[in-house]
Amino acid sequence: MPARAGVQEHDGFTYLSEEAFLKYFANGVPHDKARVLYAEQEPTAAPIFGGEPQLPRWRSKPSWYAVSKLDQTISPDLERFLAARMKATTVELRRATFRSSPRAGHPPS
After folding, report:
1. pLDDT band at residue 109, thresholds of 50, 70 and 90?
2. For residue 58, what pLDDT is reported?
3. How far apart are CA 36 and CA 109, in angstroms?
4. Do the bridges between strand 7-10 and strand 13-16 make them parallel or antiparallel, or are there none, so unpaired?
């Protein structure tokens, strides 16, 4: 996916470049909000991408998965595959679910 090219690593942590974050990760979020989100992004420990969990919690707990149909960071088809594999209750949204449709992705109470 395009955002993958924007992953930068520094001192054992990864983050998205400003261009990749704004264009691919926060697409659909108003530009001023997207810039704030970029500035506030927390880096991820690089080793997290190399390991495999010992006991994924989604195997024993109910799970929900929000598929962003216009996502340019993770393929929506991959999101659907992952959701089906974990037997998650799935909701499909247009994009950048966490900011552009924050209430739509909430699991039922």
Report:
1. very low
2. 77
3. 30
4. antiparallel
Over residues 49-69, mean pLDDT: 82
Q: List b or e across 36-75, with b for residues whose CB sees 16 or more CB atoms inside 10 angstroms.
A: ebbeeeeeeeeeeeeeeeeeeebeeeebebbbbeebbbbe
Q: Which of 95, 76, 73, 71 is nearest to 3 (CA)?
A: 73
Which pLDDT score is estimated for 88? 93
Listed residue (42, 49, 28) closest to 98, CA to CA: 28
Query: What is the predicted pLDDT for the residue at 47?
Result: 85
Q: Provide the 3-class DSSP secondary structure of residue 105.
A: coil
What whole-number distance in Å separates Cα of residue 37 and Cα of residue 20?
12
